[in-house]
Amino acid sequence: MNTHPYLRAYMAGSAVPTMMLLVVLSGFLVARYTFEIPIPIERAIIFPMALIPNLFGLWNMVYLWTRPRRHLPIGFHGAILPFFIAPLGFLVATCSGFLTATSSGLVWFHQSVIPYTVLAAAFCLALIAYYLVWKYVVGFFNGVLGIA
User: What is the total count of domains within the chain?
Assistant: First the structure.
């Protein structure tokens, strides 16, 4: 009997960001319609909604595939993912025209300047968050689905 471990790995990986996107989308909606912050939600949320769950699922499949060859703990494996997501997001945002790199920082939607020091701190926090999410949440789902 074929148990489809890669399909289960994809589902376990993509479940986590799919649930978190509901929280992020709710935050965007509250910011835009309650506090009237001019965030073009249709342009800002399309990258995370389209790619992040798929990348999580594919990255979990990579974890399952590399596990017999080289055993890297799942938390560290997940902490590597932002090194792929950040450049991909930067590329998509600059090609879409709502992110511009300047000498003082990144200009988001031609309005907000985000200094590079803030970006570096945010990236470090993202690494910690990804480590914890992959270690505890994705690892739990992998265990539930029997692929851990």
Answer: 1
